[in-house]
Write a sequence for this structure.
């Protein structure tokens, strides 16, 4: 395929230029990313290793549980890879500006589709290796396997990723082509899909309950084990192949790898065939749907009426930002996946009988949940809030000439992001503490912490986004990867640790009866004062510096 080889050369030159750009990045950012990656991988490896050792303490049944959990682990990874591929494939295949360039070149449709498919597969699955590497490393250390298991994992990972990404890409192509355009049929289709997902979730949420029967059943102990153990799933081939090779069963492991490899080839052929037959028509349909004349001129009329008491300039900026967010599937889909997974986990806490644990462990789980939600907020703040002003682009002079001030523009973006972050994260933390039946003091502390983190993250992201304003860059990923974006993430994570750790230590010592009630009250007052001080400084200083930076610019 000469066309595909030309696209491959173009991709090779692109990677060469990307390497040159990376060598020009600041040393601070490279060092921070390297340290963060090493700490993350090492922490995950130690966590997985501790889990394997814990399962091994169950004597003979530990090895049985480990082999079953391998299937569950890779089944969960396959589901996340398919979801990630669905989100990435739509933007990469149908919304990319590069497609316009490729369509006017002498490339076959099949070459373009396969190229964009592999590109979306790479973009959607790079995080897979950050999880699979510490997992397999911990298993190799626990089982005392040879380093050759790294090669086996790589050989199984490549076709496994291709299969998962191919399923997501085929689903996107079929959905975009055949999804109903009429609003009522669209709503009915979404309801049917949600009903199927809820039914599957209800079927898989059964766990082991000793009150029902004395018989130990691993399938009831681990949710989703029945489905993950299906021998027709690629995740089962992956898990069984790795386990077979680790036990020295070379023929079985090689045959499973062959099945996975042939399935990857079949999925690639299906993507090529479906794409070559319908890609151009679907691409025209997507491009034509951007400017439909029969669409209403104003979105969210009810929301606009709700914002009527606000000033005209504030209301206009809020509505503009909400429309941009809702019209970009990459933004709302990522936020929905992150917060949706957390909400699903919090809603199922009682399925694992966490509320029956001692108060000490419930306190630890509660503050770990606060930490997880806060970490997601730091990530989303750096990804979405920080580049807001820079994404205004060369049209920022319109805001500069509008009947408003730079201070009102920045404060409006800050308040909008704060309301959104606080409402979503606060609801998740209230759900978590309710499902855990936490102590009232722990509930109040958790909610106060999540509100403080929301304030600090929004203040840092908006303020530093104004200080390091870059109106020449249109790619949000490039804006975030600069010095300002790195500094914003570092400061957000530092605030996260400084805010949560004191409260977690105080409640842990209190539930272990290591401090008296009087000392507990004094410690909480001191921690509360510390939280107010660092939250005020982290929020006010970046906003004030951002306002000054905008006022000193010439637009």
């Amino acid at each position: 395929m000469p066309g595909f080889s030309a696209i491959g050369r173009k991709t090779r030159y692109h990677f060469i230029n990307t390497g040159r750009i990376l060598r020009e990045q600041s040393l601070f950012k490279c060092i921070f990313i390297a340290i963060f990656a090493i700490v993350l991988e090492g922490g995950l490896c130690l966590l997985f290793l501790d889990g394997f050792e814990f399962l091994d303490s169950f004597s003979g049944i530990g090895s049985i549980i480990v082999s079953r959990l391998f299937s569950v682990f890779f089944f969960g990874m396959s589901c996340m890879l398919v979801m990630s591929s669905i989100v990435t494939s739509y933007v990469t295949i149908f919304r990319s500006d590069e497609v316009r360039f490729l369509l006017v070149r002498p490339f076959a449709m099949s070459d373009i589709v396969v190229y964009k498919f592999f590109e979306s597969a790479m973009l959607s699955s790079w995080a897979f290796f950050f999880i699979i590497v510490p997992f397999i490393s911990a298993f190799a250390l626990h089982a005392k396997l040879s380093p050759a298991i790294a090669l086996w994992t790589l050989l199984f990972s490549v076709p496994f990723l291709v299969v998962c990404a191919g399923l997501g890409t085929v689903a996107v192509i079929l959905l975009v082509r055949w999804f109903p355009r009429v609003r009522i049929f669209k709503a009915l289709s979404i309801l049917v899909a949600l009903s199927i997902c809820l039914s599957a979730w209800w079927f898989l949420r059964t766990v082991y309950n000793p009150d029902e029967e004395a018989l130990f059943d691993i399938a009831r102990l681990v949710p989703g084990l029945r489905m993950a153990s299906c021998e027709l799933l690629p995740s089962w081939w992956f898990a069984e192949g790795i386990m077979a090779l680790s036990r020295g069963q070379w023929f079985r492991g090689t045959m499973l790898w062959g099945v996975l490899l042939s399935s990857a080839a079949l999925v690639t052929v299906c993507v090529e065939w479906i794409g070559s037959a319908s890609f151009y028509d679907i691409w025209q349909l997507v491009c034509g749907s951007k400017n439909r004349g029969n669409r209403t001129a104003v979105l969210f009329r009810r929301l606009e009426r709700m914002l009527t008491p606000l000033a005209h300039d504030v209301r206009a900026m809020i509505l503009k930002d909400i429309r941009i967010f809702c019209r970009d599937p990459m933004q709302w889909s990522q936020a929905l996946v992150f917060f949706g997974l957390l909400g699903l986990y919090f809603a199922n806490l009682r399925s694992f009988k966490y509320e029956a644990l001692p108060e000490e462990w419930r306190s630890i789980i509660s503050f770990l949940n606060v930490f997880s939600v806060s970490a997601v907020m730091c990530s989303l703040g750096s990804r979405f809030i920080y580049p807001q002003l820079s994404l205004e682009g060369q049209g920022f002079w319109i805001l500069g000439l509008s009947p408003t001030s730079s201070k009102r523009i920045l404060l409006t973006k800050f308040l909008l992001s704060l309301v959104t972050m606080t409402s979503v994260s606060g609801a998740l933390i209230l759900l978590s503490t309710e499902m855990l039946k936490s102590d009232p003091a722990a509930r109040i502390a958790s909610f106060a912490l999540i509100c403080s983190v929301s304030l600090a993250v929004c203040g840092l992201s908006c303020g530093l986004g104004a200080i390091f304003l870059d109106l020449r860059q249109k790619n949000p990923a490039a804006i975030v990867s600069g010095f300002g974006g790195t500094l914003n993430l570092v400061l957000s994570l530092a605030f996260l640790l400084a805010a949560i750790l004191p409260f977690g230590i105080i409640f842990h010592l209190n539930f272990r009866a290591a401090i008296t009630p009087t000392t507990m009250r004094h410690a909480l007052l001191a921690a509360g004062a510390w939280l107010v001080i660092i939250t005020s400084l982290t929020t006010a200083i970046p906003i004030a510096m951002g306002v000054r930076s905008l006022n000193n610019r010439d637009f």
